[in-house]
Amino acid sequence: MTIIALRIKVRTFIKAAKAIIISYCLLPLASCLLPLASCLLPIASCLLPIASCLLPLAYCLLPLAYCLLPLAYCLLPIAYCLLPIALPVALYC
To answer: Which residues cross the membrane (predicted)?
Structure first.
């Protein structure tokens, strides 16, 4: 067996060992998250019709967001100027 083939086999063995160790570490985490997923599934199925109703509204509001984006870029420097003033006022009030 050549040295290169031996190195490849050792690397493959190390990768397999890492994968086994990681899977054993993640298995308890998955078993903890499974009941949570089963609790959240009915909630998600209830929210799906609401999301399908709100999707057309999102498509309508998207052009408005593109129009307001330049305004946000203009107001950002003003916000940075006002932040040192507003922060102490907010902390003391």
So the answer is: 21-50, 70-92
